[in-house]
Design brief:
The structure is a homotrimer of 377-residue chains. The first copy, chain A, is mainly β. Chain A has a single domain, classed as Porin. The first copy, chain A, has 2 helices and 20 strands. The first copy, chain A, has helices at residues 119-122, 137-140, and strands spanning 10-15, 18-23, 29-42, 61-74, 80-87, 92-103, 106-114, 144-154, 162-169, 185-192, 213-225, 229-231, 234-236, 249-262, 265-278, 283-296, 309-319, 328-341, 345-357, 363-376. In chain A, the strands form 2 sheets. Chain A has a 16-stranded antiparallel barrel. In chain A, strands 12-13 form a two-stranded antiparallel ribbon. The two termini of chain A are 32 Å apart. At the A-B interface, strand 4, strand 5, strand 6, strand 7 and strand 8 of A face strand 1, strand 2, strand 3, strand 4 and strand 20 of B.
């Protein structure tokens, strides 16, 4: 039962994706990599999710924030790709995706992975510019889902260079083993690669793009399920929602997103709107939010700055209920990234200030300091 | 601490079991493979386990049904084998088996794995003919257990060609870390390889046996524990049993099984009987069930049928309590398998009809439609 | 995206750590290994943790006690090491450690792993002399923690040959994702390598040291948290403690430890003291305990004894509360180890007698018999 399948010789390599094995005909390949994010944090690691979190006690400490096993490659044909991402620390399967990547203009993906919706969420945790995603991600992300997606890039290197994604998903989040009702989730995303060059889905301009490269994207999603938000833990509820009856909530949401990289400078921004309809109480709520993020390698303009150092900043603003637009949750962050080996070996120091105001106009602030070493091997 | 152990040169290969590494003296070998089963289902994925399940709402959706990591090989000697199967999706260990495979007539296995009892359960999920096991599997399977087994094939290629298995097990199911009482589980199985050829434990006649190959098997098991059924989740209870006191139930069960493959045609069948004694209430219950399953590659007799296509069908009948033999649970299924690359890359479309009748002679039916892509790499 | 990173040729090997891949420049290396411990036990596997456990019913059975995946190696530089240990059976991450191993006299470790405190706990489960750790381990171990450690060996091969460890940890045990309060755990350990040779952290003198090698160590730890003990499951409570309020307990503890190996003989001993202050009730409790353990390959003095056989014994004494010094928990154990291939393939038979006495001077005994096969591949 170990008869060799159509292979003369195996090539072994060390690549950006770890140790890699591939057959001579390149029909089969597999790579294995692990990743760790080790953090020190004070006074706490998690961003406050509500005003009351400001009064929580100090919980200074160290933690392994992410510990991942990544196995990927292709099988049977070079265009028949797969990617597995397993969370060692939680013991959960994050990604298991099969991609039919035969044509650039039409790819088919199936399994479980991060739905192509917003740039911030889609950027891998190991390729982020800030230490983690902004406070608005919690409310607006579609996160990982189970289903099928069709995508492609059309009219490349022209003025009409677009990347599209259409996804049909169970809509009950990561780890779904069933649907709560018969409604599926539908997500669409259209991205204009305005200079005829597609921007990679990573933070920081490590490649030092010598031609400006930018994208402008619109995305929308609709879903009816028992959940009002999604995260790595699967489906859950936003503040103010407690019940989880099957099909109780209809979510309609959309976003505008921009991104840009040029000569060590990087920019990205998203503006979100999300409407939750509760069929039990027959009420609606609308949430809005946006973030603005930029980074720069100052060594480009100042000789005394070391080349591996990037400085980045973010401002995020979240309005939990647009009917009470006086209330807000704001995040101001500054990060210093030291790239030992691109995103695969990176030290980040981050200072964040949270400023929240309730609907009763009570406001409060909190500082947070974190250091993270993110290493892939 | 990286001193090389008795090895000159490592051979790397891609085999049916994935990328494979072995030492020049063949004393050490390891292979790594992942498997995914991705499904679309409507109106639901799970077979109904009781009459009331028919009134459940529609839960159409996609899911990853199985996601597995398989690491195996041998160490120290070629006959000292091991096999690990880990479930990525649940984060649980399925198999960890060590086999002393020195003589065909006497092998010793230890660890945790699928007890050799019934053919349907023993066939790997990646080598099934139907999309999944029949409705009777839930009630009669012994599933994975922890313990020791002795097995072998005697008088090969004669009229008295038999394969035997004797297992001594903790009897508390997968993931057992202790026994509930001092009673162990004992399982015996005797299989007559009637044509002097041993039939492999897989569905579908992909090998196109040009000589008829068949088996007739009997098996029996006895166990006292707190459980009335077993599954991948471990020990559990059948309908009508709620308590789980240590040693509360004695299970005695037996089966007759036939299987046959010849020129693209495959057949298998099992007839089960199981008696549950509840020592708390001093009552007995007897369950019975059987299934009949067959498949054929019609390309053998009709040129216009594509060669990778197999059509298979199943009928299963389960009597939850033989004292109420008017009540039944029946499954009629038809599956269309398209083998891109044998069982390792296979698309299955399946239509199933469930027909259940209660002890009050109320009956109901349900249709189910599923598509599954099963891929190993 | 598979561009090769600085590598000409990959070396593949089978070593003591399993199949190993390394780049030609030795900047990158990875090894993969699995381990299983398979046990038969009667009447029960777990050591009694309290007097009442003696009256538990017989639970004879088999189990997989440990099933581990070990991935390790180095990346970017030969001295930039990592080690991952994942528990297949529980689906939990045990170790994820990064070590900057550039200088022998100053190493930095970060992540999650077994804190350098006591020898018995630090010895890997796969390299133990007895089948498992003694009864005193439960009360005194610091176990795995998340944080940072500094260590090194100074003045090697002199009379002042010392190995030191200083650790700063979150102090909430394995799997910590946050701290319960703002107090960190601090641990220090100083080991005198009295003959100028450092004793390896393993049981049994498999190397047949022909020069006497010994160590004398002192260690101390302080922590304030919600827990009174730690184990592989994370933080927990000792008998008599039920509440888990943040920062409720201050633990101060210390130990003296000796170890010695010479010509097939091995010795180790630890004496522990631990004081728990409960800030809620403003009460103190002091626990003490020690064990003495020795083993010998009698083939060295008696020709008729087979070379792979070692006989080892242990005596452990635990005083749950020094205010009631009449009460004790004692363990007497004898183990017979058969080393097929050093610690990587080892069969152990063990007989243990537990003798416990309550503070009311009621005493009882229990025998236990276990067999274990421990295999790494």
């Amino acid at each position: 039962q170990t008869d060799t399948t159509a292979v003369n010789k195996i090539k072994v390599d060390y690549t950006k994706k770890g140790f890699t094995f591939s057959t001579a005909d390149d029909n089969y390949a597999m790579h294995i990599q692990s990743q760790i994010q080790f953090r020190f944090f004070t006074p706490t690691d998690q961003s406050p999710t509500a005003f009351d979190d400001f009064s929580k006690p100090d919980e200074t400490g160290f933690k392994i924030h992410r510990a991942r096993l990544k196995i990927g490659g292709h099988a049977y044909k070079p265009w028949f790709k797969y990617a597995i991402q397993y969370d060692y620390a939680r013991g959960t399967l994050l990604d298991f995706r099969v991609t039919l990547d035969r044509w650039d203009f039409f790819k088919v993906e199936l399994g479980q992975w991060k739905t192509a919706y917003s740039r911030e969420r889609t950027i891998s945790s190991g390729k982020q510019q800030m230490m983690d995603r902004s406070i608005i991600n919690r409310a607006f992300t579609i996160d990982r889902q189970t289903g099928v997606a069709f995508s492609g890039r059309v009219f490349p290197e022209t003025l009409a260079d677009f990347t599209y994604h259409v996804s049909v998903l169970t809509g009950t989040g990561r780890g779904a083993t069933r649907n709560d009702d018969s409604h599926l989730m539908y997500v669409g995303r259209l991205q204009w690669n305005m200079f005829g060059r597609e921007l990679e889905i990573t933070g920081s301009d490590l490649k030092f793009h010598d031609k400006p490269t930018a994208s402008l994207a619109f995305a929308a999603a609709t879903n009816r399920s028992q959940f009002t938000r999604f995260s790595t833990s699967g489906g859950g509820n936003l503040e103010g929602y407690t019940s989880n009856a099957p099909g109780q909530y209809r979510i309609n949401q959309g976003l505008i997103e921009t991104a840009f990289k040029y000569r060590g400078f990087s920019w990205q921004h998203e503006s979100h709107l999300k409407k939750i309809t509760d069929y039990e109480t027959n009420t609606d709520k609308t949430l809005s939010g946006y973030y603005l993020q930029a980074g720069y390698f100052f060594s480009n303009i100042a000789d005394f700055v070391p080349a591996p150092l990037e400085v980045a900043g973010i401002f995020a603003n979240y309005t939990p209920d647009t009917d009470f637009s006086n209330s807000y949750e704001q995040e101001y962050g500054v990060a210093f990234n030291w790239f030992f080996k691109e995103h695969r070996n990176k030290l980040t120091m981050e200072i964040t200030r949270f400023s929240y105001k309730t609907i009763d106009n009570i406001s409060d602030n909190q500082w947070r300091f974190r250091v993270q070493w993110d290493i892939s091997f």
